[in-house]
Every structure is written in structure tokens, then in C-alpha cells.
Amino acid sequence: MSFDRTIFSEKVKSMQAYHVANSSGMIKLDAMELPYTLPEEMRAALGKILSLTSINRYPNPRSTSTIAKIKQVFSLPEACEVMLGNGSDELIQILLTAVAKSNAVVMSPVPSFVMYQQTAELLGMSFVGIDLQADFSLDENDFLQAIDKHQPAVIFLAYPNNPTGFLLDKAVVQRIVEAAPGLVVIDEAYTAYADDSAQDLLTQYQHVVLIRTLSKIGLAGIRLGYLVAQPDIVVQLNKARMPYNVNVLTQATTRFMLEQTAFLDDCVSKVLDEKAKLYEWLLACDKVTVFASQTNFLLLRVENATAVFECLRDNYRILVKNLHGYHPVLDNVLRITIGNEKENSALRHALKKILG
Ligand SMILES: *Cc1c(COP(=O)(O)O)cnc(C)c1O
Hints:
Layout lengths: L9 H5 L12 E2 L11 H12 L12 H10 L7 E5 L2 H12 L5 E6 L3 H9 L3 E6 L8 H11 L3 E5 L11 H10 L3 E5 L13 H4 L3 E6 L11 E5 L1 H9 L8 H10 L3 H23 L5 E2 L6 E5 L3 H12 L1 E2 L1 E2 L10 E5 L3 H15 L1
Parallel strand pairs: 1-11, 3-4, 3-5, 5-6, 6-7
Antiparallel strand pairs: 2-8, 7-8, 9-10, 10-13, 12-13
């Protein structure tokens, strides 16, 4: 049987699938996951709860109890509404689906999270990326002029940014919000590791949307993201969301884990301690430039990032992310997720051997 392969859009045919490196048997420091698993009693308690979940029933389409828990734990503004996503990836997709028109523009600084551009283009929208400067800062005038010129339907600002690990200047964010004709989505995937949040802008401006995820605080496997915005925005976005997008096991796990805030906070603070240790060590390495970071990863520049990446992978079974080639400001840059004490020490050992 043959069929007409021209049914696939030109865009899809020209795309590369999101590449996930094979990591079996490796120390995995490439995807901003946390290295910690749950303690025995917590696992047993979670297992009990999951065993009592009605997997024969569809989830509550409004996810009422999960949303109530999220609102409480993260002190979200009462006046705002929350929508859940199967990871914040899906929230980006839902949001762009709701605004997709053929002449609509999506804008963000680049390099930033690749899904903004991928999803926009897949939906037939145009993406305008404004290059960050060599020190990873944003040229405010450039960005404001581009807003004026392109009138973007949506602006994405990752706060802090992935992959640079930096926070934009809050005053700049605020001026971008004031200049924006459409929605401004502030993506706070790394908020647990950052010195600042833009949550306060939600109540100051009608067109600010906040998205967050549980992935970077130790729950990447359950796929749970949440979006916060004014009710009239969430009403529209909910129309672009599949009714049962977040499954009952994920929702039950979310409610359970958000009761364990001491455990979650402890994991984040261990990561921050490990990051500080690794940062100090890298600072003292004369063949490495390490950048300050408000996330659970560190960026470093070496002389030949691809060679270091391959040697870590092939000789030491350590997987990091090679960002060389993604964007000029990332020349010879590696992104390393903070692992546990043992993993970080293996990394230091390997880097010492490789860099001499
Ligand atoms: C990891 C990440 C996401 C996606 O997180 P999921 O909830 O796991 O889909 C979104 N935005 C940024 C900036 C990220 O780094």
C-alpha cells in the first residue's frame, strides 16, 4: 500500500525530531532532572494513594482539587485562574494553538527554550528571535524596536532563561510587558533556583501569563506544568486544551508531592549547595570559563566543547549537553545539570583529567 506522502507539511518534513541522547548506564547531567528519588516511606505512601486512584474514570476535566493545591502551595493570586498541562511543553502548545493565525508573530530572545520557535512554526506562525549579546544580556532597545515592528501576538521570556541560566533585568521585563500588544508569557521553569520571580506582574498587567513546571524540582517524570493568568485569558486557552490532558496518576502524585514541601525544599537546597561547590571548583579551573546561574545547571566555556563533550561521554560515561553550534553566543559552551554529590565528584574528576 502506498499513500500520498505530500500530505505532510513542508514544515514538518524540514524539521528534526527533538533529539534525546541515549543515556543508559550513564551519569545523566544533560536534562535538568534532579538526581534524587523518594525515600522509602514516601514511596510506600504514594503507592497506596495511586492504588486507590480510579483509573477506570477520566480525570476531572477542570482538575479542581489539583489546581486548588497548586494555588495554595505556590501562593498564586486569588484573582487569577490556573490551567494544567502535560508538562509546560504542552502549555506552550495550547497557548500557541489558541492564538495561531497565519500572520501572527511569536517573539523571544535567542537562544532560549527551543520549543517556543518549534511550536510556533509548526502551527504556521512566524518566529522572530532577538539575539542575546555575548554576555547573555538582552539589548532592550533592539527588543522594543522589534516589538514595534512585528507586533507579536505572543512574547516568551524565560525567567531565568534556558540555556543561558540568567535572569533578565526585571525593569526590562516590565518595559517589554508595557510595550507588548499581545500576551507576554513568563516561563519560570527554574523559579525554585532563582533570586527573583515575576509573579507580581500577573496582578499588575492583564496580558501577563505565567507558566511553571514541577519538572525542575524533582518531578520530571510525572509531566506536570501549570499556567496562571487572568480568568478571561484562561477561558480562551481552555478551549484549545484537550479535556483530559493531565491524567489521574499525575494529578494524584502532584497533590501528594505538594504535601511534601519539606522534602522538595530540601532537594532544591541540596542542588543549590552542590551547584555552589561545582561553581567554585570550575572558577578555579584555568581552562574553563564558568557563568553564574539562577537555575539547576551551569554553563561553561572550554577550548573545544565538542571534544570535551565526547570524551566525557565516551571515556567517562557522563552525559552533558553540548550547546556548541546552537547560537554564536554559545560557541564552545557546555550545559551541565547539577547532579548528586557522587555524580558531581565524578564529573570534577573527569574534567580534571580531560582539561589537565
Ligand atoms: C524544561 C523547560 C520547560 C519544559 O518543562 P516541562 O514541564 O518538563 O515540559 C519549559 N521552559 C523552560 C525554559 C525549560 O527549561
